[in-house]
């Protein structure tokens, strides 16, 4: 607490010293015109002010406001107290009160620039931009012509698109400090906004004259000529740029774009081919250009094969550039070449193994092309490099699940699920695969608990609803719940044979044999490659509908397709259903 008092006393001392320098009381209580404030009042004011500042520093703003208001009872004209109160109201979001306090502070102490700057800040927050601009202009006029105030004013005029007012301020700045590259560029942009090409041309000419080494201004001038349909002048400018520096690859991009925009594609290709070979053009610029070209190829009737040629040239020039390789991957994916894209992503990881997004892309591509052997290997490696990322654990767990290594799957998934933060959908994915692992480990009750967790987060996950419904029907429990869940699947995908099979089986388990037969026949029609399990179900349902001969035929067909279930053999041997 002593340190806080020391800070406050130092602050107060500096305020008091500044008063004499400025010729007017910074705090307000040392004021020769205010004769009613005696020495005792001054001391009391000083104590109250220090307490107010102390509580402000402590963040106890209500107490601070009370102390400052007591100050105003002693010196109602104190600008410093109003300034401190205004700052508290700004923190609390009460800009109207802060604005009035700052206006009053400036009324009592019109020399203090900090009060004015803070009022300008409040005006900006209240979108009273012209009021703020007036303050900056006044500060410029009264504070020894400090030019930074004009820059602040111009920025605000630009923010509200008051281009003409911004130009007036730019002229003041230029008169004050002379020609500036940044300022002339801003003026050029404003003239373009105002659609005043002659004035824009004038600013560019000024830039070219004063900064002859900057060829980009010549390019901008060429663009102005193009906008005015003065194409010959534009080409002359480009040729001038090439004479200055024949190796400037960016000029070739400018010329190529000119020909592209006038639909001279052959000329365009001539220049863009050269541009892409120039080493002095950064690879990233070429990548960004190629992306835009790929997206606008149809508009300009540019063959995508030609774009692939440009990309191949880049790959030869920069074989290990990750941006170029990443672009190549995106193009391959957009064209449906996911396996080739996966191979390029693998190459990217040989260059840099420490980019998580690259690993994630690799795993997603492994999954999309159903390469689960690679998925297992790659996800395991990704976990080594990024042990806190959940997705590699999910894919690793899935790969074990597909190999029927249920214990390994469960352990990996359980560990990865703990890494999921603020992503309910991903959490539900973990729950669903944990449930599958547990079910196959004969830990049925735990599995059903995880299925419930999944559905709680994602109630329309029809794959989970189908599996959970089927497992409940196999266990012959909660059949009403099972029917409700599988009904949701049927509503969304009525002709899905898997869901219809589950629905038929749930109806069968509930004793609704005729309905079950209707839906299982629909499955037989839709699924031409009937699975052995489906045919066994079909036989059971037929039997319950008193179609015993047809039932035995279905069981035998199931056997012939590889179903070696002991119970199925008994059904065929005895010619009846074995419950």
Q: Nutshell version of this structure?
A:
The protein is mainly alpha-helical and 579 residues long. It has a domain at 1-126: Serine Threonine Protein Phosphatase 5, Tetratricopeptide repeat (Alpha Horseshoe), CATH 1.25.40.10.
CATH superfamily of one domain: Tetratricopeptide repeat domain
CATH domain class of one domain = Mainly Alpha
Fraction in helix: over 70%
Mean pLDDT across residues:
89
CATH topology of one domain: Serine Threonine Protein Phosphatase 5, Tetratricopeptide repeat
* Stretches with pLDDT under 50, minimum 5 residues: 1-35
Proportion of β residues? Answer: under 5%
Number of helices: 32
Q: Give the second-level CATH assignment, the architecture of one domain.
A: Alpha Horseshoe
- Estimated radius of gyration: 39 Å
Number of E strands: 0
Spatial shape = flat
How many angstroms separate the termini?
83 Å
Largest sheet: none
Instruction: Tell me the structural class.
Output: mainly alpha
Which descriptors would you attach to this protein?
579 residues; mainly alpha; Serine Threonine Protein Phosphatase 5, Tetratricopeptide repeat; 32 helices; 0% strand
């Amino acid at each position: 607490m002593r340190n806080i008092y020391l800070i406050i006393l130092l602050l107060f001392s500096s305020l008091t010293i500044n008063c004499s320098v400025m010729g007017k009381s910074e705090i307000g209580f040392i004021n020769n015109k205010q004769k009613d404030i005696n020495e005792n009042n001054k001391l009391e004011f000083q104590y109250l002010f220090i307490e107010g500042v102390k509580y402000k520093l402590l963040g106890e703003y209500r107490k601070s406001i009370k102390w400052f208001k007591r100050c105003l009872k002693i010196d109602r004209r104190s600008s410093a107290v109003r300034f401190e109160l205004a700052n508290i109201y700004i923190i609390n979001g009460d800009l109207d009160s802060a604005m009035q306090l700052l206006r009053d502070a400036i009324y009592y102490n019109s020399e203090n620039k900090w009060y004015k700057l803070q009022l300008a800040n409040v005006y900006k927050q209240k979108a009273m931009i012209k009021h703020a601009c007036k303050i900056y202009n006044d500060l410029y006029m009264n504070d020894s012509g400090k030019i930074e105030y004009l820059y602040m004013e111009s920025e605000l005029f630009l923010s509200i698109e008051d281009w003409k007012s911004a130009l007036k301020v730019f002229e003041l700045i230029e008169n004050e400090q002379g020609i500036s590259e940044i300022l002339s560029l801003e003026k050029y942009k404003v003239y373009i906004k105002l659609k005043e090409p002659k004035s824009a041309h004038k600013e560019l000419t000024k830039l070219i004259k004063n900064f002859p080494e900057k060829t980009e201004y010549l390019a901008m001038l060429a663009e102005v000529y193009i906008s005015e349909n003065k194409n010959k002048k534009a080409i002359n400018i480009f040729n001038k740029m090439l004479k200055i520096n024949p190796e400037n690859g960016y000029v070739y991009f400018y010329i190529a774009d000119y020909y592209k925009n006038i639909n001279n594609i052959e000329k365009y290709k001539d220049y863009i081919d050269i541009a892409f070979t120039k080493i002095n053009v950064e690879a990233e610029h070429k990548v960004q250009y190629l992306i835009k070209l790929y997206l606008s190829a149809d508009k300009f009737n540019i063959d995508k094969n030609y774009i692939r040629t440009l990309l191949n040239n880049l790959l030869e020039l920069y074989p290990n550039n990750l941006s170029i390789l990443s672009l190549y991957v995106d193009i391959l994916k957009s064209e449906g070449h996911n396996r080739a894209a996966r191979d390029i992503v693998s190459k990217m990881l040989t260059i840099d193994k420490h980019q998580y997004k690259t690993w994630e892309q690799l795993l997603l591509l492994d999954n999309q092309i159903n390469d689960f052997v690679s998925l297992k290997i790659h996800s395991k490696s990704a976990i080594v490099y990024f042990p806190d990322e959940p997705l590699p654990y999910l894919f690793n767990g899935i790969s074990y699940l597909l190999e029927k290594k249920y214990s390994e799957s469960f352990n990996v998934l359980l560990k990865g699920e703990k890494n999921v933060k603020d992503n309910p959908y991903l959490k539900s994915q973990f729950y669903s695969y944990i449930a599958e692992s547990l079910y196959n480990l004969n830990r049925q009750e735990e599995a059903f608990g995880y299925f419930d967790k999944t559905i709680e987060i994602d109630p329309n996950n029809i794959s989970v609803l189908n599996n959970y419904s089927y497992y409940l029907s196999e266990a012959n429990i909660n059949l009403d719940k099972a029917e409700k869940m599988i009904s949701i699947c049927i509503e969304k995908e009525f002709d899905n044979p898997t869901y219809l099979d589950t629905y038929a089986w749930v109806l069968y388990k509930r004793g609704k044999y005729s309905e079950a037969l209707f839906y299982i026949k629909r499955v037989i029609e839709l699924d031409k490659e009937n699975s052995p399990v489906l045919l066994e179900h079909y036989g059971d349902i037929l039997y319950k509908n008193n179609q015993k001969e047809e039932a035995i035929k279905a069981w035998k067909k199931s056997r012939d397709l590889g179903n070696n279930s002991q119970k199925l053999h008994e059904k065929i041997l005895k010619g009846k259903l074995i419950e």
